Structure formats: structure tokens, C-alpha cells
Amino acid sequence: MTTTRASGMLRTARTAVLILALLCFALAPISAQAGKEGIYVSESVYFTLEKVRLSEGSEDSILRFAVKLHNGSASSVDYNQYGVRVTDSDGYSYSAQLSGTQSARVLSGKEQEFAYESRVLKGSQAEQLRVTVFAWSYGSGIAMTDLGSFSVANALLTSDAAHEAIVPLAPMDSALSADSRVSFRIGNEYTVYENGEWNVYIDLVAGNLGDTGVTLPAGLKMRLENAGGQTMTVTAIDGADKSLLPGKPQRVTVQAQIPDSESAEGWALQFYYMNGEKATVLDSLDLGTGGASSATAIGDSRPTTDSQGQEIVSLKVESAIVSQSGDGQWVRVGVTASNNGGRVVAVPSLSASYQSTNGGVTVAATDSDTHAAYLSQGETEVFSFSALLPKGISVEELQLALFETRNANGGTNNATTGGSGASTGTGASGTTGSASSGSANAASSSGTKVPVLIAGLGKAEVYDQGTGTDYTLGDRIELPLDKKLDIAVTELKLYDNENYGFKTAVAKLKITNLDNTAYALPELNLDVVGENGLVYTGTRQANVISQLATNSSYMVSYSFVMPEAADGQAVALRLYNGSDSIPLHSVKLAIGQDDTADDVWDVYPYSITVNSADLLVGQLGTTFSYTMNFNVGLERKEQLIADASVSKLQFEIEDSSGLVLSTQTLPFQGTTKLLDGDNSITFTNLKLNQYNSTNYVNVYEIVDTPNGIVKRKVGEIR
């Protein structure tokens, strides 16, 4: 291939002094800056090679670079005196064309870059190529005097332009000038499994390199190509129809199917146009070079930006809980959106799904909370995404795919429900492309849904339910619920059901609303697994509140008919979300035992200490009465709401044979409730023959369950 002259205006005359100076410095490049080669014209004027990028075109390779002239001399330097060409290891030379129009005069003490593009043999490697700087000389004819050459491979090591594509627009639109060019770089990459296929989503950052606004022409197309020549169609789903203003970056999001999640880094994103039946590639970008191509971890933050690249909020996966059983696993992930900037921002419309890195599974997550529309400076909004997944997926392969819904103006919609996937968007070609949603719900009825974060859940808290995790009464149970609720088992005791003669276990749960919004009481179902493997289904108390107020706690009881149960027996208590067959969690604990001989009666949420008690006999006649005076210390262990009809104290006068002579009850709420201090109860209309000095009082807690009233002894008074 013959050598051709690089573009640029020529001076008509050169001085002999200059020619001699150039010949003196026609040396190999030496170090000009740390890590860079330099070609010196004089001690104070030299060239360096910058922003080198080598990419594949349709029939050739494209080498883009910039030659920077450093003028440390006392006078200006005219770059028209110099030129460049590209050579390969076989001795072939390739012309290099200047990109754009700029002044050739570099003033004293200044530096200036001159950008070039050269088409070289397809498949050329950086190690085979050099950029030669030469000076024009004039004597008997025009000649080039080589000053030195740069190693392309060395320059690539320090280049900051290796991941930028430069796409001329004139080939697709003749109305545009030859200088109309757009740069593209990869901002983010996300690999998402949807509808049985892997999809890669790419946020491109487009920059207008010209002086006037442009819109990407309809003829500009994109595709993926791998080393084997396989191509995949790329569809622009957001931002491609926006006007590109000089100096203003614009986000353009594209999407394409790929064979598997690991293959994204083996593909190049090509920008091309159709010349008849032939595809002409203008430039390309290698995938796997974006800032968000890999999954984040729990605790890592990632910013979301608007269409011009300004940060909106910072997203972080704060926590992840996986509750595993033999039938499946519940997953809940907490995500925060924080406004770290200096202005009020809209809360992004977020939805999510869970996927396996091995493919085959994608499950929509739900977040039923209502979120604020805006975040002030320093504020944070919390999202909680829950889903029921099949068993067999390890936490190491489990990922959360978080999506944002963007509206037609490139902003965000402020409604949030469960869901994932991408909806319809307009491509650069002017046609409409579609990526199907992988979820059952949509975060909004309009707008485009694109991923903004992929998080690996390998460090999630894992609860293997099995026979249940060890548990201490009152401790928080981590449940993958989509609300800010605290669940704790506060008591599990055994009662007698006198109607049916069965033993009944009663569990008391404390449910706390940690949010500043009232929530409906969760529809939790419970069962108990005994040591013999038998399962006993729980029944919730008949009357419960509908709404749990903000920052408040509520006690709800569940009863289990367990004919063969005994105090101290170890059981597994399993909690379910509604009618789901897979438990949210399972805890291991023992049925509590009461010491009825001491002076302390434990009736959650109360602890009752008996200070003194007397059973006095009234006037004897055909009937008589007892009056029991007693003084107690009534301590409420926790401030919570409880239904007044669920739990009460019952006092029974019994004779020495165990026959119940008379009964009275005291509630914990209302006008006749048990008091902290002195209390008095009267048992009337006892028959005279029932009197005996050995009569005494048994004290019980009674609980009203859907299967009848049950009671357990807490103490006695003699």
C-alpha cells in the first residue's frame, strides 16, 4: 500500500534552519511523561500519543488516536509543519485523517491535541502497529522527514479512550456535515434473565462532538457480534430519539438477547449502517468494559442518574434474608434509595425480580409499601422486595435484579409495585422494539423499565428451617415480609380445654410496626411440629385489629390442639404467609413450664407478684360467702395492644377433693380490672355444707380460643 499524506494546510516555505533542527531530532521516542513515550522536536517542544483505541470495522480495523503537541518554547508552533501516518510490522503504511476542524497554531506554554482516524488491515493487532510523526520538508521537492514513531500497544496501556466509539453520522444522513460525529461509551451493563432468555441491557453515554444539535439518524443501527461471527439484534429502548446537544451527554439504553449470562464479555457492540445489502461497521465497543457490568454485593452502593448523567439517588442493598425449607425458600431484600446531593429529587420507581446465575428461574418480587414521591437532601427511602422461590437455588447463584421505570421524558415514574423487565422503546433506527417483562406485575402502566442494579446475594442471612433454628422467647424473628414489621414469640404455654379434654398449646406473638405508616395486620398462619413429627395447625384468635398503628405493638394469640403434649416438650414453630404452603421461618423452642408454688404469676404481657392474700369467711347461714383480699405488684413487661377478651385471670375456690365450689374472673382491662395494689373478690351463695377450713383458691389464666376457653394454673392462695 502506498503512503499517503495526512490532511492539513501546508506552509509554502520552510527555512533551512528549521529543516536542520528537524533532522537533528529525528530520533526514536524517549520518555516524555511518566509511562508515556515522547518524540522531541527540541528540548521544549515534543509530541505524545494519547487516547488510542483500536476497533473492528466491517472490512478493516479502525485505529483512533490523538497526537498532543506540547509547546514549552517561547514562541508559537505551527502544527501544519507536521503530519502522521500509521505503519505495521510488515512495512505497510496507512494514511491518518484528522478528525474535526481546529486551529493548527499552538501558543507558547500550551498543549493541544490533534485527533486522527486511520483504517488499517482487518485483524491488525496493537503490537503490530506504530504511529509515525514526520515533518514536511521542501527542497528539490516535497518530502517527509520522520521524527520518530510511537508504539500503539504501549500507548493503549495508558489510554483513557480505549472504551469510546466515534460514529460519523453523515453516511446515514447526507444533510449532516462531515464533522457530525457522536461518541459512545458504555456506562452500565446488566445481564437479566427474562422469559427463558438472557438479555443484556447497556446504558450508553452519547456525546455530540459537533457544534450543532443532532438526532441519531434512522439509518444508524446496532448489533452484537462475537469472535465467531455470530450476531444478535440490538434494540434501543430509551433515549435514542432525544436531541443531542454539543457538550451535553445523553443516556441511550439498548437491549439484546445473548446465549447465556457469562457470554456478555465475549461480544462487541457494533455501530453500523446498511449500504445496499451490505452492513458497514463504523465503530464498536467491547462489552464487559462498563462501570456496572458485574453484580454488586450486599452493602455496596450504586448511583442512579438522569438522562444527562446527573446522580438522582444512591441505591444500596442493605440486607437479604433467605428462609429455606424442604419445599422452597422465601427471600426478602431491603434496598435503600438515598439522596446524597444538594437538591430535592424524585424517588425512582423501583421494581425487582430474583434470578439464578445458572438461568432457568426468574421470579417477580413484591413491595406493597407506598413510597414518597420526593426525597429531600439527606433523606432515605426504604424498599423491601419479597418472593417465594423454588428449592434448589443456592444463595451463591441467587441475584436481585432491580429495575427503574423511566417515563417518556427520561425521568422516573413515582409509583412502585412488584415486577421486572423492559417495555417498549424507540430505537435509533426509528423502529419500535420491545423487551418483554419477566414479572407478573408492572411498576407503572407506562414508561420503559430498565435494570439499574444487579446484586449478588451470596452473603445473605440464611435460615435453614429443618427442625427450626434455636430461639429465645422475645427475640426478633427475621421474616421475609414486605413491610417494616417486627415479629417475636413472647410465650408458648400448655392449657387445658375442659370442653374437649384436650391439651392446648397457646403461642402469643408480638407484632410491631416499625414504620411511620399504619399497616394491615399480616395474615400469618402458624403450625407446631412435635418431637414425634406430628404437625398441629394453629388457629388465630377470633378478634384482631385491622390496622396496626405506626410505632406500636400488638399481641395476637394462636392455639394448637395437642392431645399428647407436655410441659417442657421441644417443638418447632413454623410461620407462614397467608395460605402459602412454604413457611417463612421456623424456630425451635420448648413449651414453657410454670412454678405454681411461688408468689409470681406470669401472664404475658404481665408479671404479677403476690405480696399478701387472705381468704375470709362471711356470715354463716343457709349460705355463706368468701371474701378474698389480696395485694399484688402488677408489672406490664411491654407496652402493647391486646384484645381485652382474650386473656383474663380466673379464681376458683376448691375443696380438698378438687371440687370447684365457686368461680370469679378478673380482666386486665376495663373498670373491674386487676389493680396494682389492693384487690378484693367475693364468692357468694356457697352452701353451708361446702364450708371447710381446707378450702383454697386456685388461680388460672384463661384464654378464649376459637376452639373454646382454655386455662392453665399460675398459682394458688391458701
Automatic annotation (TrEMBL):
Residues 408-417, 431-445 have a biased composition (Low complexity). Residues 408-445 are annotated as: Disordered. Keywords: Signal. Residues 418-430 have a biased composition (Gly residues). Residues 1-34 form the signal peptide. This is Uncharacterized protein. It comes from Paenibacillus hemerocallicola. The lineage of its organism: Bacteria, Bacillati, Bacillota, Bacilli, Bacillales.
